[in-house]
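As the next step, I wrote out a protein sequence along with its fold in token form, included below for the reader:
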Amino acid sequence: MAASLFTYSSTSRRVTPAPNSPPLPIHIKATNVVFNPDIPEVHRGLGLDDFVNFLTSCRLRYAISDVPSEFFPEQVCEFYYTATVSEENNAITGTIGRGRHSVFITAELLSAALRLPLFEPFSEPPTIERCKRMFDQLGYDHSKAGTRSALILRQCMTAGWKFFTGALCKCVGHKSRSGDQLSNYEQQVVCSLLLNKRLDYGALFFDQLVQLLRANVRADHVPFPRWIALVFDKFFAADYFSHSGNPIQCPRMSVRMYQDDPLDSDIGISDRMREWIAHPYTMPSLSADTDDGGADGDHVDHADQEVDHYDGGHSSPPPSPHLTPVTGPASSAPQDLLSQGSNHLRGIISLRGSILLKGSNHLRGILSLRGSILLKGCLSLRGSIHPQQLAISLQGCNPAFQLLQEHP
């Protein structure tokens, strides 16, 4: 079992535990870790480079590598201890700041915090049967499974894919015990990436967190601690940094993940993955003007057409140069904007500077308004809106306003 990085025992009378909260103490363990792309010298040039390059350029590149500006384990643990799931709002609500601040997480908030791609329409996740067929195509050796033949085990994979699945599942997972067995959730994440599925990863991750919170007995360790902190850091910063305790370093993937050297007979990375490496998925940051994924910060989305076949790289997937991109103004929006009449803005929208919107305006998606802003006429804002944020957004000069995408 992973060692505890932090142990939480509330002493505040303001903190009200959820009805099915785990007994104290609660632990932060090395789960949901930050991806470590640094291959140790002894393992360089042995075939891991392609796998590492893919993980740093795929659709989940931010979800596996982003860290909050500060990681406050006490805040994250308190939220887990007090978290309840609201069926009506499809949100997880809890407290931070020793009971002083109420905060919430939705699938839309999680998607925005992890900078996940927005597809329209989304595709269904692959079935478990489809995942098993794909692992067979990657060289899965059933003879190594023994009595656990019904499971998907990393020990049955060739070394390169054993590293790939282990690293990805450590970054997007929540298990504190052995990572040898891939859960259904982990199989769907791995296969969706390799099959190029236009998956609603935000909904998948959120649903997994909801399932863990609804368990009859919650685990004594916080699931997805890094992601929870990212949501608070981006959307509830003032509350997150108050009464926060002492920060610690986010758990990082151990170099021990590199202990298995790929063999010459290992199935190589596919052409599809090589294309991703050449054209990494990037998305404008919610808190920065540019993104480090492109030379000039422009949005680049080379997430191509879904591929429902996979042969380990021995044939190229069908060419498909375009996936419905996030629409709306470019991330490097003009500093001054005058918009009159009927306007339909949708997707990831960044409006900065002196902004005047008049007439019938329909704003939908992840919206960032900065500067001196005046909204007039018939205005339609769609998505998950925090009342305080909405009130601020309609007043003169404001630092930022976030509007979360409403899924079709």
Remarks:
- Confidence is low (pLDDT under 50) at residues 284-355, 364-374, 376-380, 382-408.
- The chain has twelve helices and eleven strands.
- The first strand starts at residue 4 and ends at 8.
- The two ends are 41 Å apart (CA to CA).
